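Thread: quick sanity check before group meeting

JM: Hey all, I'm pulling together slides for Thursday and realized we never actually wrote out the predicted structure for the chain we discussed last week. Dropping the sequence here so it's in one place. If anyone has concerns about the input, flag it before I start.
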Amino acid sequence: MSSHPERCRDHGDGGRQTLRKLHDWDSPDPIVVSITDAVERLTGKKSLELDPLYSVVDTEAMAQLLSRGDNCEISFSYADCKVAVDSSGEILVQQS
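JM (edit): ok, ran it. Output follows.
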């Protein structure tokens, strides 16, 4: 886990739990660690209980696209959640 500060808060959205987290691009941890951490926090599951993130998205391509600095967003389903990540590092996880 990164020791850098992160913004993370839970709130309800139409009865569905949502979690927002900001990835620190200066952190040695890759974006996939931040995404997995956000999903773990929302679902209460540990990473070993989740399918590998690369089973639902090309994690290398995603990291390259997001770290370019271009304005982009990637969305996908993972662990019964909708996940959206943008190039600012904002991660939004919502229970499906």
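AS: nice. The chain is about 25% helix and 30% strand. The beta strands are 8-13, 16-22, 73-78, 81-86, 90-95.
JM: adding both to the slides.
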